[in-house]
Design goal:
The chain is mainly alpha-helical. 60% of the residues lie in helices and 10% in strands. The strands form 3 sheets. It has a 3-stranded antiparallel β-sheet, covered by helices on one side. A 3-stranded mixed β-sheet has the order 6-7-8, with helices on one face.
Length: 371
């Protein structure tokens, strides 16, 4: 073997050994980096959770209205039950009057309707005039007041997070989340928590804190209208954000937080992580409540798909479906056919225990003024 060949073999041997050593060292560095990254990620999450400890009370499906005395129960029921029927028809909420002292219970899965019924009853009791005409007037007034209250809740949420220049329609939608729940967890409170968690983690990672908080706050806006619009709440939320002028980065983070879209940026991962953290808190959510609410929403959606239906209320824990029909579109004889069609549609589309009573109410009113 010549000197040149020996030198070449030695170089190849040294190069091969150096490559093996480098590969081993690289694998070791990668492993150490993964461990360190995992440790830092856990630290950031732990820090975010410890720095924001939000209060949680899982929402229920009942509200209690205190009474000045038990005699008021008779006035709420009214002659032959006309008052209690008027309240239930106007609000879609069950009024439970039992032996609970100086209180009536309002039962219903929809928190907005339940709040309308609670406020209306409170005003009627304070006013003292309780009759069907007055009940309708107060329910209408309270409904308008509640819309203002929801808008103010949306404004307060954007103020708390420091999100400026949010479109007024988005503020209204955000405010509606005050009366929406997800697995028993109040969605507006959840959105605020996600916003603050996003902000804390973004600060630790050196990202835009305001952008992260804004995306976190708006991530569930689709839930305010997901019972009115087809599609997942994440995609609905993304479309709403784009429609009302939010940055593409924020809109995409909203759309991808349940992986309906592939994640493209750190912001997308932040929003998803904060959402999971908030929902996973012990006691934050209740699975059974959400499945119950979903079943009643599906029940109402079936009835609302019929053209002549104005309003639909699932009451008695879903054992009865009360439907207000448009008297201009159907006659008395058609009301029976409508109830049969809706009952048949429910049988075909839903699985449920026992039976569901379908009641169609068609009311004709003639109004004239004496001058």
């Amino acid at each position: 073997i010549s000197q040149e060949e020996a030198k070449k073999l030695l170089m190849e041997s040294l190069e091969s050994k150096a490559r093996m050593d480098a590969a081993k060292r690289l694998a070791q560095i990668e492993n150490e980096m993964k461990i360190e990254a995992d440790r830092k990620a856990k630290n950031y999450i732990a820090l975010a959770i410890s720095r924001y400890a939000g209060d949680y009370v899982a929402d229920k499906t009942v509200s209690m209205v205190p009474l000045p005395n038990d005699e008021m129960k008779g006035r709420i029921i009214g002659r032959e039950g006309r008052n209690i029927r008027a309240i239930e028809a106007a609000t879609g909420i069950d009024i439970i009057i039992d032996d609970t002292p100086e209180a009536v219970i309002l039962s219903g899965f929809n928190p907005v309707r339940r709040e309308v019924a609670r406020l209306a009853l409170h005003q009627l009791i304070g006013d003292g005039r309780i009759h069907p005409g007055r009940i309708e007037e107060v329910v209408s007034k309270v409904t308008k007041e509640l819309e203002v209250d929801m808008r103010e809740a949306g404004e307060q949420a954007t103020f708390d997070v420091g999100a400026h220049g949010v479109h007024v329609e988005l503020i209204k939608i955000l405010g509606r989340l005050k009366f929406r729940t997800s697995y028993g967890q109040n969605v507006l409170q959840h959105s605020l928590e996600v916003a603050f968690l996003c902000g804390i983690m973004a600060a630790e990672l050196g990202l835009d804190v305001k952008l992260a908080k804004r995306a976190g706050l708006l991530h569930d806006i689709g839930k305010a209208v997901d019972h009115e619009v087809e599609g997942s709440h994440a995609i609905i939320g993304r479309d709403l954000a784009k429609k009302y002028g939010e940055q593409e980065e924020i809109a995409y983070a909203i759309g991808s937080h349940h992986e309906d879209l592939p994640q493209q940026s750190v912001l997308d991962v932040l929003v998803q992580s904060a959402d999971a953290l908030s929902g996973a808190r012990p006691g934050a959510r209740k699975e059974m409540l959400q499945s119950y609410v979903k079943r009643l929403e599906d029940l109402e959606a079936i009835a609302n798909s019929f053209d002549a239906v104005e309003k639909t209320y699932a009451i008695q824990a879903g054992r009865e479906l009360r439907i207000i029909a448009d008297s201009g579109k159907i006659g008395d004889s058609d009301a029976l056919l409508l109830s049969q069609d809706i009952a048949k549609s429910i049988e075909e589309k839903l699985t449920y225990p026992g039976q569901i009573k379908v009641t169609v109410i068609r009311e004709t009113r003639a109004v004239e003024y004496a001058k």
